[in-house]
Amino acid sequence: MTLTTIRGLLRAAAFAATTTLFASAAHADQLADIKKKGEIVIGVLGTDEPNSFVDPKTRDVIGYEVDLGKAIAKKIGVKPVFKQLAVAARIPELQQGHVDLLAASLTHNKERESQIDFSLTTFVTGQKVLVKKASGITQLPQLAGKKVLTVKGGTQEPNIRKAVPSVDVVTFETTQQAFLALQQGKGVGYVNDEASLIDDFAKLGAANKDYLILPQSISVEPLALGIKKGESALKAVVDDTLRELEAGGEADKLFVKWYGPATKLKFEKREFKFVSDKVDG
Amino acid sequence: MSFDASLLLAGPYHTMLLAGLVLTLQLTAATLVLALPLAIGVALLRLAPAAPLRWAGAGFVEAIRNVPLLAHMLFWYFGAPELLPDALKERLYAGNIEAISAVCALTLYTAAFMAEDVRSGIRAIPSVQMEAGRALGLGFLATMRLVILPQALRVTVPPLISQTLNLWKNTSIATVIGVAELMYQAAKVESATFRSVEAFAFATASYLSVSLAITAAAALYHRRFPVRTL
Fold it and tell me: Do A14 and B3 touch (CB under 8 A)?
């Protein structure tokens, strides 16, 4: 194949990509479409307790973000349909219109604002590192040159590289595979959102005496729901629902239900509110 | 968003993608070197005079080729190494356990398919040749080595090349166990830059050009060493 043919092919591919973009842009109001089909497809992870995970008894996807999704569907007056996504597939699936809304432990940051829109912040978590005590590591800088494990396509990898530049990162399809690899000793640390780490730590049961969550956060992560770029009508409904949940005290109840003292996570206080869709970093 | 080739031609993302391509080539080469002798061994087992040996060969092939490669990968990374003694396990985990597990999975998987091709190649050689070798006083293995295999492997080269093509593409499955091969690096560039088209265009072009090179090598071999009339 000659270079010109390759160039021609690439141009054709780029052309196809742009046409798709235009086609979806012409298709303006997603909210109207959702009402017309009578259901809203919400992308969740389904592997990240307590945000969204599969209930072992009923096999349904449940969790904090699932409840938020249900509240939004109720407000619009349609049926919620939950679709499980891989971490790396979240933004592409939303952009291609395979899901209407992302409720998938999604970090809201400046880089992503050029790709999609975000709702009001629905949760704030730090990212931390879980290590085995036997490794002797107690501080972040000691991870220099060591192998740490995390999930593909999230903010975990760039954040740990920023915090410890010389670290060696190996990524997997789900957080639970990375966590299993840590337990098996295939790396010294496992990077994840603090809330998920506390949950994983609790899952270890009696064995958790051999593990330690490093005290320093590598970043502060505001989580939000993801909305396709420019769908302002849908964003308005989503934000209104969140504001109503906050005003009616439902937001507090949801926090206590999934993160509160009676749960594995044992968070004492809710240190954020559903008020802003602005982030710093 | 237009196609931006500059990130493929220089800079950190170029380096990442290139490192992925190199590792993919290394995985293919290491697997090929290990799988080919294993495949010949298994093919000989399947044609051995003693029934238990034939059963062992057939057991190997059926047990491996009927399970998806993805399951093999996960087993050789998360499962098998856990059965090793602790000291050995620690030494293994301190090294590049991801790549080692991937080569194990790919070697067994590729060998199972190649063994069947080698077996067909051997069966294509008329049985009188084996009988002639035995009549000359050679044993089963000596007849195989001196008479049958040199002819059989020549017949087997085209299907083996096709298995090599499969192997080259199968290396992409190793991304699930954290091996930093081409697909892994392309996904990494995608999530860092949101430039999916560019990242996967590089991966596609790489897979395609190496595949075409392998096919060209096959055609060249076929012309230089045509199958002798049997």
Answer: yes
Q: CB A157 to CB B205 under 8 A?
A: no
Task: Look at chain B and count its residues.
Answer: 230
DSSP A38: T
Same domain, A172 and A140: yes
A171 with B196: Cβ contact below 8 A: no
Domain match, A162 and A255 both = no
Q: Return the CATH number at A191.
A: 3.40.190.10
Q: Which of A14, A115, A185 lies closest to B93 in CB terms?
A: A185
For residues A60 and A151, give the distance between their C-alpha atoms in angstroms, rounded to a whole number: 23
Query: What is the CA A224 to chain-centroid distance, rounded?
Result: 8
Q: Which residues 189-218 on chain B approach chain A with CB closer than 8 angstroms?
A: 190-192, 194, 196-197, 201, 205, 212
Contacts of B1 in chain A (CB under 8 A): 17-18, 21
Write down the pLDDT at residue A100. 96
Interface of B with A in 124-183 (CB under 8 A): 176-178, 180
On the 0-12 / 13-18 / 19+ scale of CB atoms within 10 A, B54 is: middle
The answer to whether the CB atoms of A186 and B176 lie below 8 A apart is: no
- Which residue stretches of chain A have pLDDT < 70? 1-28, 281
Taking a C-beta distance cutoff of 8 angstroms, is the pair B116, B58 a contact? no
Domain of B60 in residue numbering reads as 6-224
pLDDT of residue A10: 53
Element at A243 (helix H, strand E)? helix A232-247
CB contact under 8 A, A1 and B212: yes
Separation of first and last alpha carbons in chain A: 45
Q: Report chain B (230 residues): mean pLDDT per 10 consecutive residues.
A: 78 93 97 96 93 96 96 96 91 92 97 96 92 93 92 89 95 95 93 87 96 92 76
